[in-house]
Write a structure and sequence with these properties.
This protein is mainly alpha-helical and 70 residues long. The chain contains two helices and no strands. Helices cover 60% and strands 0% of the residues.
Length: 70
């Protein structure tokens, strides 16, 4: 029962995060004229100058301070 509760909270938190994150990434792409964003796990090799993770994390942290799980 506890594991089920934690799983539901985790799913809720992931959905809330993505609800906020996706528009941030889309706006960033429009602003910087980026045509594609690829998950690092799906990437074999790339120039580190193309990594936007820190920029996106900073924008996300400004917009979403926390996620309430209750």
């Amino acid at each position: 029962n506890l594991l089920e509760s934690v799983a539901k909270q985790r799913t809720y938190a992931r959905n809330e995060l993505l609800k906020t994150l996706n528009p941030i990434i889309k706006d960033y792409m429009n602003e910087k004229k980026i045509r594609m964003v690829v998950d690092k796990k799906s990437l074999l090799l790339a120039d580190e100058k193309l990594d936007i993770t820190k920029d996106i994390m900073n924008l996300l942290n400004k917009k979403l301070k926390s996620i309430n799980l209750n």
